[in-house]
Amino acid sequence: MALTNRLSFRRSFALLASVALIAGPVLGNVEQARAQTAQTPPTVDNQAPAAATNPAQAPTVGSAATATNPAAAPAIAGSPAMNAGPASVADLASGLLDAVVNISTSQKVKDQGDGPANPKVPDNSPFQDFFNDFFKNRNNDNSNRKVSSLGSGFVIDPTGYIVTNNHVIEGADDIEVIFPNGNKLKARLIGTDTKTDLSVLKVESKRPLVSVKFGDSAKMRIGDWVMAIGNPFGLGGSVTVGIVSARGRNINAGPYDNFIQTDAAINKGNSGGPLFNMKGEVIGINTAIISPSGGSIGIGFAVPSELAEGVVKQLMDFGETRRGWLGVRIQPVTDDVANSLGLDGAKGALVAGVIKGGPVDNGSIKAGDVILKFDGKDVDEMRDLPRVVAESPVGKAVDVVIMRDGKQQTVKVTLGRLEDSDQAAASSDKSGGDDKNKTPKLAPDDNGNGSNDGVINPDGGDDGDDGMDGQDQGGDQQPQAPQQQAAQSVLGMKLATLNAENRKSFGIADSVDGVVITEVAPGSAAAEKGLKPGDIVVEVAQEFVQTPTAASEKVASLKREGRRNAQLMIASPSGDLRFIAVALE
């Protein structure tokens, strides 16, 4: 029995020894890998560890070095490029921080109304005097209290010119610029532009200031690294890094929206601060964020330098903006309209009318034209045109590529000044009355109100004289009254000749010409486009019509040509013009 126990013990001991011999090297490698991991220095400023930057000292698994010296190699190795983070921006930031400033503003605000009644305490109460003194002093303070706010800005010129957002300093009684070294200087407002939310300030410094310059935001691509510096929540000199996450964003902040979207952290207080490229050039001015909570969620917007640079220069030179003005009413080009005009896609800006006395009132551009290029710049969609026109110098002669009568052609126009549009629009109002429908309503500004952006909203009121009367009929001669014709059905509409009776019944202005729609068949192509009795068909396929027969014959000719849609110019009873494309039945 004892012999059996001894044999069993020997066999167990031999088995354990064999396992130890086999497992020893494996466990040794595991421990070595752990030791190497513990000894690897941590990364600093997003730089890769030294071992990763010197592949020669870190052979990969299966290399000769691993075979001869297993302890010299980690158990798991990857590509150095994959392990390395983005390069540090410390050197870049250090050279820019002194040019970024905090903007502190204050204004006096008077309380409105009496507010809630003061609490009362019983007479002869020991707290009566305390309550009276407290609420009396509080009322005196609040009657004219001081409100402060903080934002960001940057020095764009060593002589003391500073750029920020208009909403940072709007309504301020006092503006103070705080520099990174703690110096504070009073600033005066040089000029502001509400349409782009930009302002320029000026401080007087005894020595040249550290400044930055604009770069070309047009060269920025989605995915390019950017860096923001600003004053979020009053914490000056804050640096955040991200990428350009989108371009050309329209957030309905103004008529020239073309924002750069970035995921670099932008918070309250960053407004007016710069967005830099990796060369240290300002390619955007941080202006807005989307945030349900008020903090950064990685969606921030910056005014691109390609738009801001010209505005800032004009504010510095003139204290105001001097934008180009074309004097046209435009609307989007839909797929149906593009098809009816022979375009290969829905692009460009469709001219719905021309303002009397404007730069193109000479007939160089007409209602129904589609503007495809302006001064060498593509107009891919309607909102591109106001921006490129506004960025152009006043008085400049530019080439405009248009589509007219199915053919592309280039016309030369000389731009007016945007501020002149009020006078031109007023002169086109022949009524002399105060009818609100007679005043052109311009495209909305950042407050949702009418503003002179050089392009008029086609849905706004207009006098019906902005480019139509006189041009198609020859000079300023009045068109002859058309002969009365029986109503005809065209494209689901019953059309009738305009006369005194239907002008009165539908309230159609005397300045409006064409054929009136008296009925619209339910479910017809015209009904689907929103046409209704009282609307006036002015043109069919860019051809003026005054009788139902003329409209019917033009539609018939389009069908024979194989057209799928008929482009109609429609006027409202007050004269507002728009273009629609109706499917041919």
Quick overview of this protein structure:
The chain is of the alpha+beta class and 585 residues long. Helices cover 23% and strands 28% of the residues.
Could you name the key traits of this structure?
14 helices, alpha+beta, 7-stranded mixed sheet, 585 residues
Oligomer: single chain
Please tell me the overall pLDDT: 74
The total beta strand count reads 28
Q: Per the principal axes of the C-alpha atoms, what is the gross shape?
A: elongated
The portion of residues forming beta strands comes to 25-35%
Characterization of this structure:
The protein is an alpha+beta fold and 585 residues long. Strands 14, 15, 16, 17, 18, 19 and 21 form a seven-stranded mixed β-sheet that branches. Strands 22, 23, 24, 25, 26, 27 and 28 form a seven-stranded antiparallel β-sheet that branches. Strands 1-2-3-6-5-4 form a six-stranded antiparallel beta barrel. The radius of gyration is 36 Å and the shape is elongated. The N and C termini lie far apart (110 Å). The relative contact order is 0.07. The model is unreliable at 21-73 and 420-481 (pLDDT under 50).
List the helices and strands and how they pair.
Elements: H1 2-39, H2 50-53, H3 64-68, H4 80-83, H5 90-94, E1 100-109, H6 128-142, E2 145-157, E3 161-165, H7 166-169, E4 174-178, E5 184-193, E6 198-203, E7 225-230, E8 238-249, E9 259-262, E10 274-276, E11 282-289, E12 300-304, H8 305-318, E13 324-325, E14 328-332, H9 335-341, E15 349-354, E16 370-374, E17 377-378, H10 384-390, E18 397-404, E19 407-414, E20 416-417, H11 421-427, E21 455-456, E22 488-490, E23 493-497, H12 500-506, E24 515-520, H13 525-528, E25 536-540, E26 543-544, H14 548-560, E27 565-571, E28 577-583
Parallel strand pairs: 14-21
Antiparallel strand pairs: 1-2, 1-4, 2-3, 3-6, 4-5, 5-6, 7-8, 7-10, 8-9, 9-12, 10-11, 11-12, 13-20, 14-15, 15-16, 16-17, 16-18, 18-19, 22-23, 23-24, 24-25, 25-26, 25-27, 27-28
